[in-house]
Amino acid sequence: MNLETNIQNSYQIRQSTFCKYVLVTPNKEIQLTFPQMLELRRKINGLTTINTLNKIINNENFVLLFVADKQHLIFLEIPQLLKLKEEIALFFLDFKPVLV
Amino acid sequence: MNTTAIRKQMSIHPDVMDLLNNQIGMEMKASASYLAMASWCDQRELLNSKAFFYKQAEEEREHAMKIFTFINDNGGAAISPNVTNVNNDFESLRGIYETGLEQEIAVTESIFKIFKSARKEGDLITEVFLQWFISEQSEEEDTFRSIIDVFDLMEGMPLKMIDERLPKE
Question: pTM value?
Answer without folding.
Answer: 0.88
